Amino acid sequence: MSTPAPLTELEAYLAALLQGRHFEAAVIGASAGGVAALLEILPGLPREVPVPVVVVVHMLRGRSSQLAELFASRLAIPVREAGDKEDVAPGAVYFAPADYHLSVENDATFSLSNEPLHIFSRPAIDFAMQSAADAYGPNLVGILLTGASHDGAAGLAAIGAAGGLTVVQDPHEAQSPLMPEAAIRLRQPDLVLPLRDIRTLLARLERGNS
Questions:
Q1: How many domains does the chain have?
Q2: Which domain holds residue 80?
Q3: Is 197 among the domain residues?
Q4: Name one GO cellular component term (predicted).
Q5: Alpha carbon of 116 to those of 43, 99, 111: distances in Å?
């Protein structure tokens, strides 16, 4: 019988941080440079990902989103565009559709709206994160990646205030550091990590029994 490989320093730290914590969902926000960043972290998701992963990426207005198709060919788990009134179910990655704000209702279903732009964006990261914080409370992971605006800073702060785990990409490696820097200024996140370590974190999430 082979001996398990020893944990790296990061893996040991994450194991201690996550011990006793269980999660019901993860929300990821990104803007400029976000697709490349997501291509580094999402393929690290386990084949049977234990939580739903909701992704909001800023897009140019007037263009349809091809993100679900792009990532479906690269991940071993279901990837789809979130639909209005659809259940937020574990085992899948959901992308916000173009030109709609995406929210998570308290009954763990999606809601789409065409409310005015928020910080020049629709979908807005703040909408998804703040609503998910209300729905999942401490059982939520929020991750904010590269971007060229401060959208997502308030949303991530709301997740932190609700007791959820907050993670920001290291601004020093971000293609556009404005978004992670804004989040750090507003409320210190639990973790500031490079993409390779965010990938490791996602792979270690455990789902609660509720």
A1: 1
A2: 23-204
A3: yes
A4: cytoplasm
A5: 33, 10, 15
22 is a catalytic site residue: no
Structure tokens belonging to residue 151: 């959208």
73 in catalytic set: no
pLDDT of residue 204: 87
126 counts as catalytic: no
Residue range 165-189: mean pLDDT, rounded: 98
Q: Are 40 and 199 in contact (CB under 8 A)?
A: yes
Given 103, 121, 126, 151, the catalytic residue: 151
Q: Residue 16: its pLDDT value, please?
A: 85
CATH number of 91's domain: 3.40.50.180
Q: What's the whole-model pTM score?
A: 0.94
**CA 91, 130, 71 angle in degrees (round to 5)?**
35
100: DSSP letter: S
Question: Does residue 153 lie within any of the structural domains?
Answer: yes
The token pair that represents 41 in the structure block: 């972290």
CA distance 30 to 104: 18
